[in-house]
Specification:
The chain has 167 residues and is an alpha+beta fold. The chain contains 3 helices and 10 strands; from the N terminus they run E-H-E-E-H-H-E-E-E-E-E-E-E. It has a single domain (3-161), classed as Double-stranded beta-helix, CATH 3.60.130. The protein has helices at 15-22, 61-65, 67-77, and strands at 3-5, 42-50, 57-59, 86-91, 103-116, 120-122, 125-127, 134-136, 143-145, 150-161.
């Protein structure tokens, strides 16, 4: 089981992104696109994605619609030690145990905001990802959040989408 705790990123690095995100309405997923056992949650996807119906790989709708947010997500992602294609942004999500079937290899999770609780648990071990990137293979290792989240938490999951090549 390979889990790597990366060096902490200064909280100030997230300030602009936090303020930008608080100005928009992050969409709630629909039951139609909901993963089995996942509660309805607020999320966005940035970077490369494959269109559901056409199969065309390109920049996500969220990346195009919110270029300033995408630039901040990319700036933070440039500090990570691997090449990624896509970023899943979650807002106040506490997810059940799962594996990420769209990921190819390593993922990095990092959280920020004004919150307590909602820690990530990977293969039964609890980690605090606030400003501290955690790198692990989300497609192989089961992970979830503790259910004690209070406050305003954003999480970024940087990963290589199986349908896209690394940037």
């Amino acid at each position: 089981m390979e889990i790597e705790i990366l060096p902490e990123i200064d909280a100030l690095e997230f300030e602009k992104l936090y303020h930008l995100l608080n100005k928009i309405k992050i969409p709630t997923n629909t039951i139609k696109t909901n993963r089995r056992n996942f509660p309805l949650h607020k999320r966005m996807c940035f970077g490369l994605t494959r269109a559901r119906y056409s199969g065309v790989v390109g920049l996500s709708r969220d990346s195009i619609r919110y270029p300033e947010i995408f630039d901040e997500i990319m700036r933070i992602g440039d500090k990570l030690p691997f090449k990624w294609t896509s970023v899943h942004l979650n807002h106040n999500v506490t997810c059940p145990p799962h594996k990420d079937d769209k990921n190819n290899g390593k993922s990095v999770l990092i959280s920020f905001g004004e919150y307590i609780g909602g820690n990530i648990v990977i293969e039964g071990i609890k980690y605090d990802a606030r400003h501290r990137p955690i790198m692990f293979n989300g497609s192989l290792l089961e992970h979830w959040n503790t259910q004690d989240l209070q406050g305003n938490k954003y999480s970024l999951v940087y990963y290589i989408n199986k349908d896209c090549s690394a940037r």
